[in-house]
Amino acid sequence: MSRRGRLLGDAANWIVVLGALAFFLLPVIWIFLTSFKSQGEVFRYPPVFWPKQIDFRHYSEALGGAGGKALKDSLVVASGSTAISLLVGVPTAYSISRFRVGGQHLAFWILSIRMFPPVASAIPFFLLFQKFHMLDTHSALIIAYLTFNVPFVVWFVKGFFDDLPRDLEEAALVDGATRWRAFTGIAVRLAVPGIVTSALLAFVFSWNEFLLALFLTRSQVRTLPVALANLVGGHEILWGEIGALTVIAIIPVVVLALVLQRYVVRGLTFGAVKG
Predict the structure, then answer these.
(1) What are the structural domains of the chain?
(2) What is the pLDDT along the chain (275 residues), one digit of tens a residue?
(3) Spatial distance between the Cα atoms of 119 and 103, rounded to a whole number of angstroms
(4) Helices marked H in the chain — which ranges?
(5) CA 230 to chain CA mean position, Å
(6) Cβ–Cβ < 8 Å for 141, 217
(7) Sign of CA dihedral 219, 220, 225, 228
């Protein structure tokens, strides 16, 4: 292929990539700019793309109302579910990888639980938590999310433990280390990229989940997805507050992804998910 042909091919590839990037980022950019528009600009026709003056009123209204409490509730639920999922999932993944606990079919059974649609568990969860007076609590949502986060963490991290050489742990055991020391000091340290990646994905799932949060909460606990849905009324849609609360909901996930970037890149390129 000639030099001109390669240049045309590269240019075509860049055009496709930039076009796809613009297509997917345009809604995000639009909602971001909408959060800074005045009330008149939000409803102006034809639509105004760039706000003439930066207005933070929508942010103060969103955080001053139900949005501020929803942000705290989402942080509590997502952080709690992620932490417990790691505490349960990482040792389980190690035991399955090293000792074949449950036989060869247990790992696939755990993965099948993650494939279970959340809508099918909404009513059973509701009846269960209603019986134990746990509706509209952080604990109810954390427990509900564990049923999906723990299987994911187990399956994801198990692939990392499978790829780690056993010789390092066996050498530590020969030198007098306990099995727990070999697990925490060698296996966990080497599997940090996979553990961090699974933690980030579990956090994102808990952060974005809407259906179970809608079923299991009322007024005492309300996560950000539910709070956003409540901004759409029968007679009015608060687009400015929706834009502000959406930006607020995006920020923690973006910050986590940037802080943990090097671990996530290693985790996603290490071939973690294996049968």
Answers:
(1) 58-269 (1.10.3720.10)
(2) 567 767 777 788 889 988 898 888 888 898 999 889 888 888 888 888 888 888 888 898 888 878 889 999 999 999 999 999 999 999 999 999 888 877 777 777 777 887 888 888 899 999 999 999 999 999 999 999 999 999 999 989 998 898 888 888 888 888 888 889 989 999 999 899 889 999 999 999 999 999 999 999 988 999 999 999 988 877 778 888 999 999 999 999 999 988 888 877 766 666 544 44
(3) 30
(4) 3-34, 39-42, 57-64, 66-99, 106-114, 118-131, 138-163, 166-174, 179-182, 188-190, 192-208, 211-216, 224-229, 239-259, 261-269
(5) 22
(6) yes
(7) positive
Please say whether the beta carbons of 185 and 128 come within 8 A.
no
Question: Residue 237's beta-bridge partner residues?
Answer: 232
User: Angle at the Cα of 158 (from 153 to 163), degrees rounded to 5?
Assistant: 140
CA 250 to each of CA 31, 75, 141: distance values in angstroms, whole numbers, following the listed order: 11, 12, 20
How far apart CA 149 and CA 274 sit, in angstroms, is 18
Beta bridge mates, 232 = 237
Which of 147, 157, 234, 142 lies closest to 188 in space, CA to CA? 157
Taking the C-alpha atoms of residue 226 and residue 244, their distance in angstroms, rounded to an integer, is 15
- pTM for the model stands at 0.86
- Residues with Cβ within 8 Å of residue 154, at least 6 apart in sequence: 89, 92, 93, 96, 107, 110
The answer to whether 242 touches 43, Cβ cutoff 8 Å, is no
Angstrom CA distances, 87 to 61, 75, 181, stand at: 38, 18, 16
* Separation of alpha carbons 186 and 51, rounded Å: 54
